[in-house]
Amino acid sequence: MTGAAHSYPTQAVVLAGGQGSRLRPYTDDRPKPMVEIPGTGTPIIGHQLNWLADEGVTDAVISCGHLAEVLQDWLDRTQLPLRVTTVVETEPLGRGGGLKYAAGFLPRPDEPWYATNGDIWTRFPLREMAAFHQERDAAATLALARPRIPWGAVETDAFGHVLDFIESPPSPYLINAGVYVFSAAFRELLPARGDHERTTFPRLARERRLAGYPLPQGSYWRAIDTAKDLTEAAAELAVRGR
Fold first, then answer.
1. 44, 78, 188, 223 - which has most CB atoms within 10 Å?
2. H or E, element range at 240
3. Measured between alpha carbons, how far apart are the two ends of the chain, in Å?
4. Helix (H, G, I), strand (E, B), or coil: what is residue 213?
């Protein structure tokens, strides 16, 4: 199909409410998405918003939680590449409920939308993912990554002889990369409270309405969970660019 056959989302929800306890002390005075990759001078969420804007997103709703005022202050002081609305849950709603609440503030409720976890550092063509989603007539599409295993692997033969040592090989399994494309109607499928990955996603999978989009070969993806992730992301960024 040609690009003209597709309608790409122009709105997104960014989930930025996590406490990031494994990133302490970086998260003692700021929410996890406000942590800076060393050497960039820009927090994770700043890079995310630039990426979304590059992919045609004009409006983003940011769901805040832990130390929300720090994130909101940075957004107020920063020249942003798109329009941003922030929302804060007045009571814990769970991941699915929080996503549903934030999606209620999207400016075009009758159009599809992206969502992304606020601690993901990635670059890949979102429009291609949106086309994949549309071609499969899915209610929801998950980006799928194949991260590297953080340990060295040992290869053996059937008899038990060690054949080789492989440093940080790719995982044999695909994982949820924390980036999504949702149909306009998906919000109504989310629980008001609770975790959509335990309710909505399994139901859609049984109905064959949930799609998985493998990240293209060579795409960059990293979840920023620990101080080691920060250090490795900075080194990778120095080689790859933004």
1. 44
2. helix 227-240
3. 30
4. strand
Can you tell me the distance from the alpha carbon of 46 to that of 49, in angstroms, rounded to the nearest whole number? Answer: 5
How confident is the prediction along the chain (242 residues), in pLDDT tens digits per residue?
444 456 799 999 998 876 656 656 555 566 778 877 766 778 888 889 999 999 999 999 998 877 778 888 888 898 889 999 999 987 878 889 889 999 999 999 999 999 998 888 888 999 999 999 999 999 999 999 987 777 888 989 888 888 888 887 777 889 899 999 999 999 999 998 888 989 999 999 999 999 999 999 878 887 776 766 766 776 666 666 55
Half-sphere exposure of 37 (CA within 13 A, CB side): 24
The DSSP H or E segment spanning 47 is helix 44-54
Secondary structure of residue 188 in the 3-state scheme: helix
CB-based contacts of 127, cutoff 8 Å, min separation 6: 3, 6, 8, 55, 56
Grouping H, G, I as helix, E, B as strand and the rest as coil, residue 52 is: helix
Query: What is 62-116 written as a DSSP string?
Result: EEE-TTHHHHHHHHHHS--SSEEEEEE-SS--HHHHHHHHHHTT-S-TTS-EEEE
For 149, the token pair is: 């295993």
54 touches 39 (CB < 8 A): no
Structure tokens at 82: 């798109």
